Amino acid sequence: MMNQEGMRMLNDIHIVDFVLVDLALYLDTHPYDQEAMEYFNHYARIKNKMAKDFSMRYFPLTQDLAESGKEWRWGAAPLPWEGAC
Amino acid sequence: MKDFGFDGNCDKFPIGMAYVPWQRFDRLYDNLEEGFRNGTIFPELNKPFTGRRCVR
Questions:
Q1: CA separation (Å) from A76 to A13, A33, A61, A64, B51?
Q2: Is the ipTM value over 0.85, yes or no?
Q3: pTM score > 0.90 for this model?
Q4: What is the phi/psi pair of residue B5, to 5°?
Q5: A9 shares contact with chain B (CB less than 8 Å)
Q6: Tens-place pLDDT, residues A37-63
Q7: What is the separation of C-alpha A4 from the centre of its chain, rounded to a whole number of angstroms?
Q8: B41 and A22 in contact by Cβ < 8 A?
Q9: Separation in Å, CA of A12 to nearest CA in chain B
């Protein structure tokens, strides 16, 4: 299901996601700050790519990344309280 | 949105009020994981409670 590499990828996604949260909080009060917006766009692209890669290799983090073929991968993904994500 | 940055002119501010300096975008942590652990990506906002007066 998910190995050490997967856990590391997920941890990196959490870190980049946190950066976006904090940048968004800053941008809420500084809506014209160009530099902050460039950082946000940059890390948003990175996070989207990481989430897509993770979802292809392990399990979809969000339904829109399910890309199911034979089986509905979203349903087969481990549940949050099962400690996998 | 008006910039509420402090231009150093104390006279125009009524006394007895509290003022919070407006955050300026300086820089992020070089190591984002360090920011993640500290709960902020802005080094200047990392103010750990040391159990006594605010000294670094």
A1: 21, 42, 12, 14, 47
A2: no
A3: no
A4: -60, 150
A5: no
A6: 999 999 999 999 999 999 999 999 999
A7: 17
A8: yes
A9: 8
